[in-house]
Design goal:
This protein has 81 residues and is α+β, with helices and mostly antiparallel strands. It has helices at 3-14, 42-50, 54-58, 72-79; strands spanning 18-24, 27-33, 64-70. It starts with a helix and ends with a helix.
């Protein structure tokens, strides 16, 4: 599975500001940034990210995912320390 394809899918379907995806041995690390996450719990945020990727997950194109998600404000706070 191509990391750029995952970035495109998530950015388009969730209207994210930024998405960063890395892959090692079919294990993907996703960092997603967007105000779509405002007011959402971490569990809800994960569900939001899984939803557009579910077909790739069930077809074993994606074996494992680690997710970090931030609103724009959270991202700015975490990256300006």
């Amino acid at each position: 599975m191509n990391t750029k394809k995952i970035e495109f899918i998530l950015k388009e379907q969730l209207n994210l500001k930024e998405v960063y995806v890395t892959e090692e041995n079919n294990h993907f690390k996703i960092t997603a940034i967007g105000d779509v996450f405002k007011g959402s719990s971490q569990v809800t945020r994960q569900k939001m990210i899984y939803k557009p990727l579910i077909n790739m997950i069930t077809k074993n194109k994606i074996h494992a995912i680690s997710i970090k998600s931030y609103t724009l404000n959270e991202w700015e706070k975490n990256n300006n320390l």
